[in-house]
Amino acid sequence: MQTNFPFNHKYLMNVLESIRDGIIIMNPDGDIIYFNDAAETITGYSREEVIGLPCTVLDTDTCVILTESGRQRCCSLFEDGTPIHEKKCRIRSKSGKTVYLLKNAVMLKDDRGEPIGAVESITDITSLYMKELELEELKQELRQHYWFMGLLGNSVPMHKLFDKIRNAASSDAPVLICGESGTGKELVANAIHKLSSRKKGPFVKMNCASLNEYLLESELFGHKKGSFTGAISDRKGRFEAADRGSIFLDEIGDMPQAMQVKLLRVLEEKIIERVGEHKPINVDIRLISATHQDLYDLVAQGRFRQDLMYRVNAIIVHTPPLRERRDDIPLLVTHHLKKISITNDKTIKGLSSPALEILKNYRWPGNVRQLINALEHAAVTCKSDTIEVSDLPDYVFGETGLINNEVEDEADKIKDALTTYKGNRTLAAKHLGISRVTLWKRIKDYNIQV
């Protein structure tokens, strides 16, 4: 215990008044006995106006109900002591304006456990709520014409993709989604699941490139307590979690060969065994896998089993790269710029014609993901409500030299981070601001020796 903590009434009041969230304290009857500065700002009421009044004066939609005798308090906190945790609600401010809040509240008890009041914190999330509404309106607008299960496009290649998704969803056979990074393979997998007969079941995802063979086996098959160091309890694997649903294995081409044999057995027998246990468990799953590599080349190189390839590719769906559907670029630009504008609270009406022409003519090796990054860069650098050529990232003006320089710079940064953290990929990824999966891919792509 900290014996020198300056805990006195004046110190506590200073702490409460300095907090940016609204703090309200009630007595056991629900009457307000404390109201800090932030609560005044959020609600529009001064403390003099509310002290001594019941908390229902704030007209919170989750705490007040209308009855024949008027407004009545309906609060689980005072009824049975159940804490309120990050509950979204709204109040009517003094000016009559609706304010959207995130609320937390707990009962205060004395040394004998008897309730002596309650304390509540309120955070104004009105601006965030309005942004969510704008984004939902944007999605609804797009769904009418260009939106298909989270995929955006109106070009011929995209309509062909939508047809393939519908066809794949009508079957229960394994699906292999092939396409470059950034083309939306996970969105396609999710769409197939949601349109299939398994849509009410779980959709479980796993990236095969993110873990080594032993961790991947534990993640997919689960493990028995004590089967290896760190296995402190029984754990259900992702195959079991996906029972009666679909499992999505991304980057299946990077799956270790020992795991390929085990996956083949699952597909053939619909049975798994947890690590450290020999009890067979039946699973009813639909496999959807994806890769940015050519599995036939991997088979020829001896890196992927041929029998497994024929098991996973019963239905093949190709996601078109952005350069093959340039007609969608104006639509994608409009949609993502609206999202960026709403998120960053910055009005950006669009691109100038020359800037849009440059984006349409660039090859986009990183596809839609890279286009979004380019738009985010341009939105930050532009000084008006229109993105000009000068606001675009340098790499869109040349497809060779600039890109190669960027690759070299990124490879050097990764090497430096790995050296600094003595090969610890988790710390290096955190330092670089990327995920461990992304770091692992970059190490492979740039042939960095760890």
Q: Can you put this structure into words, describing what you see?
A:
With 450 residues, the protein is of the alpha/beta class. It is 41% helix and 20% strand. It folds into 4 domains: 9-124, Beta-Lactamase, CATH 3.30.450; 156-322, Rossmann fold, CATH 3.40.50.300; 324-397, Helicase, Ruva Protein, domain 3; 401-445, Orthogonal Bundle (Arc Repressor Mutant, subunit A). It has helices spanning 9-18, 37-43, 47-50, 76-80, 126-143, 156-169, 185-195, 213-221, 238-241, 257-269, 295-300, 306-312, 329-344, 353-361, 367-381, 401-420, 425-432, 436-445; strands at 22-26, 32-35, 64-67, 70-73, 84-92, 98-109, 115-124, 147-148, 151-152, 175-178, 203-207, 222-223, 235-236, 245-250, 271-272, 281-282, 285-291, 315-318, 350-351, 386-387. A 5-stranded antiparallel beta sheet has the order 2-1-7-6-5. The longest helix is centred in the C-terminal third of the chain and has 20 residues, at 401-420. The two termini are 46 Å apart.
